[in-house]
């Protein structure tokens, strides 16, 4: 069975040019990556295939996810980024949870942004849903959209 059967996804239209949406994704991840009142800290984001992709999230009551490690699998600037947590940097295998696909496409006078989580099996997909994929990724998307549109208005 292909990975599409085990997808969770969010998408929205952002009233900002794709270049600005891309820059917000690249440069301001600390500000949008997790739903408030949680906050994110990018440890490393090496935007090349095989590059380390590591983020840590902190909750309002002192929660700390520890580093969430992964690697970049594919990148086409301003179009697509594919990451996975199946490997840590240096192609060190670890227990996989998902592959994330972030896409950016021109649409009307703005950008269609889609964030997709592909899971290895139905159980992992259900676990992610039960963890709160919705509303968590919905809130992340709303924060990202607002930040992109604010950035476009001030450009």
Brief account:
With 155 residues, the chain is α+β, with helices and mostly antiparallel strands. It has helices at residues 18-27, 29-32, 122-131, 133-153; strands at 7-14, 39-45, 52-58, 68-76, 80-84, 87-88, 92-93, 99-107, 110-118.
Descriptive report:
It is built from 4 helices and 9 strands. The chain has helices spanning about 20-25, 30, 120-130, 135-155, and strands at about 5-15, 40-45, 50-60, 70-75, 80-85, 85-90, 90-95, 100-105, 110-120. The strands form 2 sheets. A 7-stranded antiparallel β-sheet has the order 1-9-8-5-4-3-2. A hairpin with a 3-residue loop joins strand 6 and strand 7 (about 90-95). Helix 1 crosses helix 4 (about 135-155). It is globular, with a radius of gyration of 15 Å. It starts with 6 loop residues before the first strand and ends with a helix. The mean pLDDT is about 95.
**Portion in beta strands:** 35-45%
Principal-axis shape equals globular
Strands, total number: 9
Q: How would a textbook summarize the main sheet?
A: 7 strands, antiparallel
Total helices: the number is 4
Rg: 15 Å
Helix/strand order, N-terminal first: EHHEEEEEEEEHH
- Relative helix content: 25-40%
